[in-house]
Amino acid sequence: MDLENKKATRQSAGEALRDLGKINENIVVLDADVSAATRSDIFAKEFPDRFFDMGISEQDMISTAAGLASCGKIPFACAFSVFATGRAYDQIRNVICYSKLNVKICGSHAGITVGEDGATHQMFEDINLMRGLPNMKVFSSSDEAQTKWLIKEMAKLDGPAYIRTCRLKTAKIYDDNQQFEIGKGLQIGNGTDATIFSTGVCTVEAIKAKEELAKEGINVRVVDIHTIKPIDEELIIKCAKETKKLISVEDHSIIGGLGSAISDVLIEKMPMKLIKIGIKDTFGESGKAEDLMKKYEIDSTAIIRKIKE
């Protein structure tokens, strides 16, 4: 893990869209007047004729993306996750998912790590909203290499897809040659004392916890779940059989997120206790991202404490 070279996954997503635009002329990008923040402006500068700033009108953006998809284009609709999934939920449900339209939604600035923007912009429910929709695939990226791969893979998929990215700069976990697969988590280490299932910015925290615990003779594995739906049932069951304790950690509500998705698998296939670390049933507040992660107990310190308990 490279802690020196950090990059926000929203930045990586913008770069990936630009690269995708160079090889596929059917790629179009829409944004809800926040392109400098979502970094879709990187695509806009390269392909101004294929970029559409829809203004502060997320419902219109999603409906327009649906129209473009019906004409053979591959639209990526970008906005802050709280508005992309919350304000436009009706359009996503009844226009995109019901009709199985080939629209890709990029929700940036997800979770408590939006930081100073505060509670109105800190989206803890987007995974919950999107994974409950029929026909929707749901992704949450952890670093630069994974984000760029996911954006390119989303363009190959036929049908609705959602990816959440974050504002906080995160360490580089994977090199550019890392192999990923839709619906398959990545296991880091073979520890049997515990499994830490993680996603998004919390994967770095999970790896930090793993490294610190190893110094005390506690050996855990980290499983990075970049695909929330369809989730890797096989790997979840494998870890339940091989490790003594299961923990999930996410910058999302403990209601309906990664932890809930894992619990659904365990209840049916391998009954075992899962400790869910995430944002409890509450709104957030304004503050520095790292301070908020500590206060809301989704950092490496909180993970270590839970494992020791």
Sequence-ordered SSE layout with sheet pairings:
Blueprint: E1 2-8, H1 9-23, E2 27-31, H2 35-38, H3 41-46, E3 51-53, H4 58-70, E4 74-80, H5 81-87, H6 89-97, E5 104-108, H7 126-131, E6 137-140, H8 144-156, E7 161-164, E8 169-172, E9 186-188, E10 194-198, H9 202-214, E11 220-224, E12 227-229, H10 233-242, E13 246-253, H11 258-269, E14 274-279, H12 289-295, H13 300-308
Parallel strand pairs: 2-3, 2-4, 4-5, 5-7, 6-7, 10-11, 10-13, 13-14
Antiparallel strand pairs: 1-8, 6-12, 9-11
Structure description:
The chain is α/β, with parallel strands linked by helices and about 300 residues long. The longest helix has 15 residues, at about 10-25. It folds into two domains: about 5-170, Thiamin diphosphate (ThDP)-binding fold, Pyr/PP domains (Rossmann fold), CATH 3.40.50; about 185-309, Rossmann fold (3-Layer(aba) Sandwich). About 50% of the residues are buried. The strands form three sheets. Strands 3-2-4-5-7-6-12 form a seven-stranded mixed β-sheet, with helices on both faces. It has a five-stranded mixed β-sheet with strand order 9-11-10-13-14, sandwiched between helices. About 40% of the residues lie in helices and about 20% in strands. It contains 13 helices and 14 strands. α9 crosses α13 (about 300-309).
